[in-house]
Design goal:
The chain is mainly alpha-helical and 640 residues long. Helix content is 58%, strand content 5%. It folds into three domains: 239 residues, MFS general substrate transporter like domains (Growth Hormone, Chain: A), CATH 1.20.1250.20; 78 residues, no CATH class; 255 residues, MFS general substrate transporter like domains (Growth Hormone, Chain: A, Up-down Bundle). The two termini are 33 Å apart. It comes from Papaver somniferum (Opium poppy).
Length: 640
């Protein structure tokens, strides 16, 4: 301690990298190499601090599970898949039907209906991060899912009542299609819309509680110390998204069929019944589940790091008052449900929260001094942000496709031989392409890409996200090209004013190209992102990590709404009779220009992602050899 500089103990250690990295990283001066701990050593000496991998799974009563073979694994995961399948079926069933319900039943303008649904989708996803904090802090993932699936079911029941009981909808007398298009039908009363919005947003609140927890809870069922853990995790997230896709396919086909044959009440009622059955199945699997203890309020821990770093902002890393970087002794972290995390050199200003000075004394105040692990949690949350942020653009494209492509399909021939496919079934094709890609993923993509990249899983998580973003650019660019052709065809053949009349000589199945491409983009981007966030997030904040993906999706919905409003105000002139790009009459609007704007934004977003991915440093574990024996030790992660 005589020197004012924190030395690296590189002279007395030899390192063997476990995943990525190089041994010369230990020869650099790093704050995280200042002390070592073990169960027997409680003083700071030159070295690194010991890490145990993962945390001990517990049962529903919070007691450690002694025999892991009787719990968790794929059997427990399949109960969770069932719950997710029903939740996604309800989510997509509402998203594809609610616009039409508001337009045809509640007599709301199409643009207002689309914006209301976009806001529902956005709120249900963007609020996921708050529920993620709640799950990681107090409730745990299991109880969060249990509570919010019940809320979800209550919301679906309320929507079913609205569609079934006539008092909740406006009068439909003397309301033909022409009156509906001209806006002459009796609109819903304010209290009727208030009831519908309340039920809709209760449903969205329930969805917000499930989304950040269900994928993390499923991944918790696998043993982190198993040699097959990485392989199981990779396959889990693919099967997880496959269950999402199956739910979407059922929503776009079976639920649409029920609505056309039996009405809105039966369609929404079937969603509520499916959600109730899935809840029962989820609870049946309770004895099989492995749980992680909630680690206390992440918000409090984050706030403590920020406050402690601010208080010591003027303190120097070479101060003579420096004792070292603070971490509790032993193998376990001070944070319940979390292993210790390696120190890194990123965001050095936050390291000051862990600077232990002589003035701190023995009565340690968590608002003045935090552990290295606690500081690293905050660093990780910050470092993760750019990656999901770059997927917001994909969500924007998905949101626009969900509404605009249905309008396109109304003007096209949807016959397949003698079978006429309902327009509202068109979004099923991205789901079918996802189903096909996931089915062939391990037999086709992984072997081929492994030969190119040498990666055991074919491509890294960030590479898969990048592939998805690149394919999404192709999808929206094709959408722009085809929409320009479709509009010109309509104008040249006298369909300019007949925007709800299908053109018999132009098939709707040209839309399949953009649908299939966006489906491929989803597979690579979203699955890769979910796996990336789960593995890179701190142990006690994995629900928050998963919530990042949901928040990105929600922000995409809001961005789509904002973008649509900007384009409407900037491209049209009501007094001059100039239609906007997003005119209700698609044949006088210019959807193709909007798609080109999305293409340009997607290209710029992809460039930002490439930069962020190159700068990102994966969390790395290493084994340090000392005195001929291997001692598990965390050292600074280097670029993987």
């Amino acid at each position: 301690m005589g020197s004012k500089e924190i030395k690296s103990p590189g002279e007395c250690m030899e390192t063997t990298p476990v995943r990525g990295g190089s041994s010369d990283s230990l020869h650099r001066k790093k704050l995280g190499m200042y002390f070592v701990e073990s169960d027997d050593s409680r003083t700071a000496i030159g070295g690194g601090y010991v890490l145990t991998r993962g945390t001990t799974p517990v049962n529903i009563h919070g007691k450690p599970i002694t025999n892991l073979s009787k719990t968790g694994g794929w059997i427990a995961a399949f109960f969770i898949f069932g719950n997710e399948m029903a939740e996604r079926m309800a989510y997509f069933g509402l998203s594809v039907n609610m616009v039409a319900f508001m337009f045809y039943v509640m007599h709301q303008p199409f643009s207002s209906s689309a914006n209301a649904v976009n806001n529902f989708l956005g709120i249900s996803q963007a609020s996921s991060v708050l529920v993620g904090f709640l799950a990681d802090a107090y409730l745990g993932r299991y109880w969060t899912i249990a509570i919010f699936t019940t809320i979800y079911l209550a919301g679906l029941t309320g929507i079913t009542v609205c569609a079934t009981v006539s008092v909740f909808v406006p009068n439909h007398a003397d309301c033909d299609q022409l009156s509906l298009l001209l806006g002459h039908c009796e609109q819903a009363k304010p209290w009727q819309m208030m009831y519908l919005y309340t039920a809709l947003y209760i449903t969205g609140f329930g969805a917000a509680g499930i989304r950040p927890c269900v994928s993390s809870f499923g991944a918790d069922q696998f043993d982190e110390n198993s040699k097959d853990y990485k392989s199981h995790l990779d396959r889990f997230f693919n099967f997880f998204y496959l269950s999402v896709t199956v739910g979407a396919i059922v929503a776009f086909t079976v639920i649409v069929y029920i609505q056309m044959q039996h009405g809105w009440g039966s369609a929404f009622g079937s969603l509520a019944i499916a959600m109730g059955v899935s809840n029962a199945v989820f609870f049946v699997g309770t004895p099989l589940y492995r749980h992680r203890l909630p680690g206390g309020s992440p918000l409090t821990r984050v706030a403590q790091v920020l406050v402690a770093a601010f208080r010591k902002r003027h303190k120097s890393f070479s101060s003579s008052e420096l004792v070292g970087l603070y971490e509790i002794p032993g193998r376990h972290s001070a944070i319940k449900g979390s292993a210790k995390i390696a120190h890194t050199d990123d965001f050095r200003c936050l390291d000051k929260a862990a600077l232990q000075l002589k003035e701190d004394g023995t009565e340690l105040n968590p608002w003045r001094l935090c552990t290295v692990t606690q500081v690293e949690e905050v660093k990780i949350l910050i470092k993760l942000l750019p990656i999901p942020a770059c997927t917001i653009m994909l969500s924007v494209i998905l949101t626009e496709f969900l509404t605009l492509s249905v309008q396109q399909a109304y003007t096209l021939n949807t016959h397949m031989g003698h079978l006429k496919l309902p327009v509202t079934c068109m979004p099923v094709f991205p789901g079918l392409s996802i189903f096909l890609i996931l089915s062939l993923y391990y037999s086709t993509f992984v072997p081929l890409s492994r030969r190119i990249t040498g990666h055991p899983h074919g491509a890294s998580q960030l590479q898969r996200v990048g592939i998805g973003l690149a394919v999404s650019i192709l999808s929206v660019a094709w959408a722009a090209i085809f929409e320009r052709y479709r509009r010109n065809f309509a104008v040249e053949n006298g369909y300019e004013a007949s925007f709800l009349t299908p053109m018999p000589n132009l098939s709707a199945y040209w839309l399949l190209i953009q649908y299939c491409l966006i489906g491929i983009a989803e597979v690579f981007c979203i699955v890769g992102l979910l796996e990336f966030l789960y593995q890179e997030a701190p142990d006690a904040m994995r629900s928050i990590g998963s919530a990042y993906a949901a928040v990105a999706g929600g922000l995409g919905c809001f961005v789509a709404t904002i973008l649509n409003n900007i384009i409407k105000s900037a491209t049209g002139n009501e007094y001059e009779g100039k239609p906007t790009w997003l005119a209700q009459n698609i044949n006088t609007g210019r959807f193709d220009n909007l798609y080109w704007v999305l293409t340009i934004l997607s290209v710029l977003n992809f460039c930002v992602f490439i930069y962020a991915a190159k700068k990102y440093k994966y969390r790395v574990e290493q084994v340090v050899k000392r005195g001929g024996s291997d001692v598990p030790m965390v050292v600074n992660p280097i670029r993987a």
